[in-house]
Amino acid sequence: MSFANFVQRRARVQRHRDAKNFSGWIRQITQNQVVLEFTQVPELAHGETVLVEIHGDDGCASFKASVAETKSNFAVLRVIDRFKVFTANESPRIKVEGIQGKLTIDGQEHPITVGDVSEKGLGVIAPVALTQGSKVELEINTGKQTLSVTGSVRYCRQLKDSGNYRCGLIVSSSGRLDSARWDTFRKSFSNAA
Questions:
Q1: What percent of the chain has pLDDT over 90?
Q2: By three-state DSSP, how is residue 77 classified?
Q3: 5, 73, 133, 189: which has the fewest C-beta neighbours closer than 10 Å?
C-alpha cells in the first residue's frame, strides 16, 4: 500500500488524554510524519499523543503519533508507532477544492461549495441549515459539464466561524446516465491524489 493513497483523504484523530475526536485532511504523509489540515484550529498541544485512522482507496491505516507542531489550522504529527494496515470498512472521503454548485430544496436554490466526495455522497458548505432526511437536488459544476443528481441530507451542523453549515449528502442518481456521470466525477478525484 502506497502512502499516496492517503493524501487528501479524511483522517480521524483522537486525543489520547481525554478521547476527544477531531477530523482533518491528510496533506502530506511519510512513514515518520503526517501533516494534517483541519477546518478549524485543532485543540492539540505540542507533545500530545493522538491515535489516527485514515481510510484510503486500498485500505485503512491506523497509528499512534505525537504532535510535533501546530500552526493555524495545521498540525504536524510524528509517527511513534508502526502503521497498522487493514481492510477498509468504509469508503474514503476525498478532499476537493474549487467545486461550486447549487442545491435546491423545497423550490429554493442555494449556492454550495463541495468540500469532499466519497463513493456514496459528498460534503458541502451551504448558507442554510438542512433537515436530516430532506430530499435535495444538486447541480455541480465539474468544470467540463454540469452534473445533476438528487440526494438526501445525512447530517447538517453549523460551522463555528461562519454563518454557514457543513452538510453530508447521500447521492441517489435518477438514472443510468446520471449514475455513470457521478461515478466518473467521484473517480476523477480518487485517481488525482
A1: 55
A2: strand
A3: 133
